[in-house]
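Fold sample X.
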Amino acid sequence: MTTANTFLGSASGRLLQASIPFRFFAAAVLFHLLAWLALAWAGPDIIDFVGGLGWTLAGLHLLTLGVLVMTALGASLQLLPVATRQPVMSQRWPYELLWGLYVLGVLAVVAGMALWLPTLLWLGALTVALALLLYLGLLALNLRGAKGMPLVVVHGWAAALSLLVLLASALSLAGLYSGIILIERTAAIGLHVSFAAYGLMGLLVMGFSYILVPMFALADNPAPAWSQLSLGLALLALLVAMLVLLGLVPPLLFRFAIVAGALAFLIHVALMEQALRSGMRRNLGTSFGLVRLGWACLAASFALALALEMEIGLRHAAVLFGILLIGGLLTLLLGVLSRIVPFLAAMHAGAGMRRPPTPSNMTAQRPLDIHLYCHSAALALLLAGVSFDNVWLLRGGTLAGIAGAVAYAAFFLHTWRRMSQMLASKAQP
């Protein structure tokens, strides 16, 4: 299996200190719980949310900045050196500085949003931007020195460019509340959504999926021609969307961007499904149940985006689009993270051992099963609550989300505890 061998060969020599990626993942798990609590506090305001400061916006950014981007930072900083066969520049620094800056910035951003404090929001946005620029430098160093996985490397460079657009639009939107206008609001919102969700996160997820899905399924790499077509369509979609939003080409072309993005995503999912069907390992547990649910939500988000652009009359269409888009990315990443965390824990704990532990030995399956049911119910209830203007369904969805987040935290703590115990026992004389 080409991908698995490439990825795992001599990987132990390219690992960061265990506390580095795991502190990013731990923060994401905590922010996951806080996000559901914030959305529960927001309550019925979610149904008619059209923007503006408050608990709904804070909960949304706890998910996007706190969970999605936080997970992407931790995963990419560790997995890219392993995948591209190059040593890490340092075991701890400057990753600790990046983590501290980013966590502080996210807390300031969401507090500024929740409590209607524009100055705090602006300061938090600047801190987040500084942290992400530091990450961009680390990402560029990894990509520049890459010795393999060219398809993943191109996805990484495209994600890096998307991050720059994301930062410009984010600072513009944060500055509006303090009277600082960088980009016109409608254009900034469009750029922010397109390049945060489909650009940065979408490209990183797609790129790493070409490593992780074949590796976990023990399958061969997808056909390069189809992978390149998917990437080309995705980049074309983002470019056209940016030109439309900046007013450089006719607005009608935004529909073309949506269709091109949808085709890119569907080709990617088809390649991943082919890998899953042809792989030697068929039973991948609840994690890939979440991955498939995430894929379905993201595919539906493209359909709803097209309906919004064509002005087809759907009640609360923008809110439903947000749930499908953010919920789909969240679901997909939590599914992948539930495989990455035990995998990395086993690699760290088993370094130098004749019989290292397997990822399954580091996994508590029952919390993951509980999380799957609770998370799926949360998404379904949120969609139903918004569709039918039913506050009780909405509250039920947030409560299910809270229960799922607690279960997911229990899974993470179990894996961390197992790894820590093994590392401590090896350190004893």
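Fold sample Y, listed below.
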Amino acid sequence: MRIDAHHHLWDLSTVTYPWLMARGVPRFFGDPAPIQRDYLLPEFRRDAAAFDASVHIQVGAADGLAEARWVQGVAEAHPDWPLVQVAFCDLAADDRDAALDALQALPTVRGVRQIVGRAAGEDAVTGTNALLEDPRFAAGLRAAGARGLSFDLQLIPQLYGGMARVLDAAPDTPVALCHAGSPQERGAGYLRGWARDLRVLSERPQVVCKLSGLGMFDHGWTPNSIRPVVEICLEHFGPDRCMFGSNFPVDSLYSDYATLADAYEALIPDEAKAMVFGGTAARFYGLG
């Protein structure tokens, strides 16, 4: 089974996504205007024609539970497409346990995501970096793991050390590092430093790595520009802890799906393909 381990769907008439409805507002990954429209499962399946199953990741809905319930409905309406999801939950909120109860009533929910860091400019506005110093967040990570839920982790390299300390307080919670940890530059010197810093996360055995979202910081990417990132992730985590994710439709701003998937096919060694394109995600997210 070939699994896309990181993509999004949205129906703007059903769920409210403030960032998709804010016209003319640039984001850290660029101008979202071309994707400020519905992106539904049939279109995704046409894009991901070489894949057999997928993992939907929450994507900034005003009401995370409403989004999760909508995704559950999509999965039920398309039983021929194995679809599971990672839903939003504020792990530092007073109503965290009730929110987790509601999410776990949905059979497709495998984990939760609460973004710790996107990019320095946006993080200064949202204040999400403060989660690393909030003991309620660490407690929420432990609570999610105790329920059998995983955590999808999006952050920037400057936060790796602080996040590693939080992960040490929740060692039994499986963690998927989104977008290879968001390396923001492609120069050789930057990547050497990033590879060194990434070890603090790869040394935590509960962490797996998503080869996803690299176009967000590399708009003119080529196979050669992303090659070092892919190779470093495979070296640090091994193929049994790496998985491919398209990050569509966000990464459709910079590539069509086939071009993206073909680039990873060419970059990932043959002996690693089975795990990266399916095995790791199947195990991590419980996709049979």
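Sample Y note: The chain has eleven helices and eight strands.
Also: The domain at 3-285 is CATH 3.20.20.140 (TIM Barrel).
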